[in-house]
Design a protein that fits this description.
InterPro entries: AAA+_ATPase, ABC_transporter-like_ATP-bd, ABC_transporter-like_CS, ABC_transporter_ATP-binding, P-loop_NTPase. This protein is α/β, with parallel strands linked by helices. It is 29% helix and 27% strand. The strands form three sheets. Strands 6-7-8-3-9-10 form a six-stranded mixed sheet, with helices on both faces. The chain has a four-stranded antiparallel sheet with strand order 2-1-4-5. A four-stranded antiparallel sheet has the order 12-13-11-14, covered by helices on one side.
Length: 326
């Protein structure tokens, strides 16, 4: 999903002022808490910095506090305590510039079905006070591959087209920060790939992207850094590679030289499964033993080793370990 040939993805800021003091954080959160009416506490003293220029993943199970955090950034929910700034602008002291510095793509597909995509983007630009001669409507429609649907009623668009229109709508004021809240929920693989291509291009042009997703393989592939929130608290915040490296369980698949009726056991095996008659899938804790010790234990059971392959831990392993512990 590229913009015009020879042009970078759109990132000009006609509405946002320069921040009062440049810092490394696109979004800075300190001591953020939220208690809803009735006493339910959704966030507990959250501290979080989202670096400028990155694709940042904010992950967590349902009800963890992700949506509350995003709604506070969007100005839809009032915080109970704490400080939040977007692009250097405090959301309480300078709400106008804070809102002008962020675009939100919500989970829900919400816009007037009787407006065309062109009218939808023009109206949204009008809300930000952008003069007609400075609006990016046609460029945005081309960038998200909706220029051929510019004058069709929005209600006639497919689900994937509506998702793309929401991304364009969030970018009408060229914010330096874009938040994507579950943007690929319920869309097909081709659209997902097109959407991520466009997001990467936006990021390459300088837009900081914040992503929430339940597709952990997406987060692992796209994000420079990931924070995990659980029960209203940040339980991890690290570069993606370092976070994945924290997975202590590792699996090795070993093909042996004869048929087995049951899997052998050893003290260094966390778990062992027999796949077929000759393949053992052995899980071990890499902070206690190494692969060589595991293979030696297989040989001590009188088995010859024909083939070995390892199964690397992924973000899902880390996510499940951290959230279960939480």
């Amino acid at each position: 999903m590229a913009g015009r040939p020879g042009h970078p993805p759109l990132h000009r800021s006609p509405t946002a002022a320069m921040p009062p003091a440049m810092s490394d954080a696109a979004i800075s959160i300190r001591g953020l808490s939220k208690i809803y009416k009735g006493g339910k506490q959704a966030l507990f003293d959250v501290d979080l910095d989202i670096p400028r220029g990155q694709i940042f993943g904010l992950l967590g199970p349902n009800g963890a506090g992700k949506s509350t955090t995003i709604n506070i950034l969007a100005g839809l929910v009032n915080k109970t305590a704490g400080q939040v700034s977007i692009w250097g602008f405090d959301i309480d002291k300078d709400p106008r510039n804070a809102k002008a510095s962020i675009g939100i793509v919500p989970q829900e597909i919400v816009f007037d079905p009787f407006f065309t995509p062109r009218e939808t983007l023009d109206n949204q630009a009008g809300f930000y006070g952008i003069p007609k001669n400075r609006r990016l409507t046609d460029e945005l429609l081309r960038a998200v591959h909706l220029d051929d649907k510019a004058d069709a009623y929005a209600r006639s668009l497919s689900g994937g087209m509506k998702r793309r229109l929401l991304v364009a709508k969030a970018m009408v004021h060229s914010p330096p920060v874009l938040v994507l809240d579950e943007p690929t929920a319920g869309v097909d693989v081709e659209l997902r790939q097109q959407l991520w291509e466009y997001v990467r291009e936006l990021n390459a042009s300088g837009v900081t992207v914040v992503l929430t997703t339940h597709y952990l393989e997406e987060a692992e592939e796209l994000c420079d850094r990931i924070a995990i929130i659980n029960h209203g608290r940040v339980i991890a915040n690290e570069p993606t590679r370092e976070l994945v490296g924290k997975a202590q369980e590792k699996a090795v698949s070993v093909t042996v030289d004869r048929d087995l009726d049951k899997a052998p056991d050893a003290i260094c095996f966390e778990k062992v499964e027999l796949k077929g008659s000759r393949t053992l899938v052995i899980t071990y804790s890499k902070d206690k033993v190494n692969a060589g010790e595991v293979l030696a234990a297989v040989q001590k059971n009188g088995l010859g080793i024909v083939d070995v392959s390892t199964q690397e831990a992924d973000l899902e392993d880390v996510f499940l370990a951290l959230t279960r512990a939480g």
